[in-house]
Design a protein that fits this description.
The complex is a heterodimer of chains A (about 260) and B (about 120). Chain A is α/β, with parallel strands linked by helices and about 260 residues long. Chain A contains eleven helices and eight strands. In chain A, helix 4 (about 65-80) packs across helix 10. The longest helix of chain A is centred in the C-terminal third of the chain and has 27 residues, at about 225-250. Chain B has about 120 residues and is α+β, with helices and mostly antiparallel strands. Chain B is about 25% helix and about 35% strand. Chain B has a three-stranded mixed beta sheet with strand order 2-1-6, with helices on one face. In chain B, strands 4-3-5 form a three-stranded antiparallel beta sheet, with no helix packed on it. In chain B, strand 1 (about 25-35), helix 2 and strand 2 (about 60-65) form a beta-alpha-beta unit. Chain B starts with a helix and ends in an 8-residue tail after the last strand. Classes of the chains: A alpha/beta (about 260), B alpha+beta (about 120). The interface of A and B includes residues 31 and 149 of A. Strand 1 of chain A pairs antiparallel with strand 6 of chain B.
Chain lengths: ~260, ~120
């Protein structure tokens, strides 16, 4: 009796349903580049600096290939006739920034262990620099031929340095870096008599990966090739500024362009 | 190393999708990794296993599709697949190639589990 009264007073139990039956699975199609947001940020920055007439140059190489020395030689060659600044990426120290500070405005970007620079860090460096009338903004990346290849830092020009002591086989071994660069600077050419490095073989190897790669040779220590390198940068700046002027002209008088 | 920051970004994006679709949990995340994306598949998977447990995507399974580098030969016009990072047209041997695929890491789709509307009395 007690059993039946208990069963009557018991609240109705809900049917037991497993979580799987209670939920439904939906497939949501995305097809979206995971890095799209960073790429968009880089693209906007690139356009902004193009309008300002500033050429952003991202310098990449393995550690010790001579990025800082090349920038020192560049600044010495121009002797203050060109407005340049450098964002220096380093894992731990500000040694490179200190070397460059006597020549031009420098901002240190310390990655705290990370192997490459990313757009937010560059953005912070640009804000701290606070220079909006530059002709050249150099970004000295962290020494590494792998990870920096995958990160667009809003540069107009990516330059990969290859020192003759590293060996001529590097382009084939690090294809993405050489594929995504615009210019190849072969550095430390004063050591060529002492090392088994063929400039021609290195360029041939690099062009298999990227036929558009513009090769240059420099020795920052002796100054050999530095004038050509600087002229190359000046030409690129000129092209950048002409492209802005052309765009402005097109926007102002579309009819005129259509006629021609 | 940069695989970790990519996975973190991926989990954040999938978490946002979960919110947007009022889902409860994520069952599957399908990702495409191009051969020229600069990403190591094993490191990507390890980073995922490390991070997924602490994210909104806890319990989700990662499925990776690897895609080769594809391009169009600017000389003969053929669509080609680039192997061994030799950017040479296998047909006409031209080196002038426009890359059309295999450079990105893409989030393809996700399976999101949500409460069944028919089992919800207030709906």
């Amino acid at each position: 009796m007690s059993d039946s009264s208990m069963s009557i007073s018991r609240p109705p139990t809900p049917p037991r349903v497993s979580p799987v039956e209670m939920s439904q699975t939906r497939n949501v199609s995305v097809n979206h580049d995971i890095r799209a947001e960073l790429k968009q940020q880089a693209e906007e920055m690139r356009l902004l600096f193009q309008r300002r007439g500033t050429l952003i140059v991202n310098i990449v190489s393995s550690p010790g290939a001579g990025k800082t020395s090349l920038l020192e030689a560049t600044a010495k060659h121009w002797q203050g006739t060109r407005r340049m600044a450098v964002l220096v990426g380093d894992i731990a120290t500000d040694r490179d920034a200190k070397r460059l500070a006597p020549y031009c405005p420098v901002e240190q970007l310390t990655t705290g262990g990370a192997c490459h620079l990313e757009m937010p860090l560059v953005q912070r460096g640009i804000d701290k620099l606070g220079q909006d009338d530059l002709e050249f903004l150099f970004i000295e990346n962290v020494g590494n031929l792998v990870c920096p290849a995958s990160h667009d830092l809003a540069e107009h020009l990516r330059v990969v340095l290859l020192s003759v002591t590293e060996g001529e086989d590097k382009p084939g071994k690090y294809p993405k870096m050489f594929r995504t660069s615009h210019a190849l600077v072969i550095s430390k050419t004063d050591l060529l008599p002492h090392v088994p490095f063929s400039v021609d073989s290195a360029i041939t190897d690099a062009r298999l990966v990227n036929p558009e790669l513009q090769p240059l040779t420099v020795c920052s220590l002796t100054g050999e090739g530095v004038a050509d390198w600087c002229r190359f940068l000046e030409q690129r700046l000129e092209q950048l500024r002409q492209s802005v002027a052309w765009t402005d002209e097109t926007n102002r008088s579309p009819n005129k362009v259509r006629e021609s | 190393m940069h695989e970790t920051s990519l996975v973190r970004s991926l989990l954040k994006q999938v978490g946002a999708l979960l919110d947007a679709h009022l889902g409860e949990s994520v069952e599957t995340i399908r990702v495409e990794i191009g051969a020229l994306a600069g990403i190591d598949r094993t490191l990507f998977e390890l980073a995922f296993l490390d991070l997924v447990g602490e994210s909104r995507c806890r319990g989700a399974v990662l499925l990776i599709h690897e895609v080769p580098i594809s391009g169009t030969c600017l000389y003969c016009g053929r669509d080609i697949i680039i192997e061994g990072f030799r950017f040479v047209c296998p047909v006409c041997h031209s080196t002038h190639i426009q890359i059309t695929g295999g450079e990105d890491v893409r989030l393809l789709d996700v399976d999101i589990s949500s409460p069944d509307p028919s089992s919800c009395e207030s709906c």
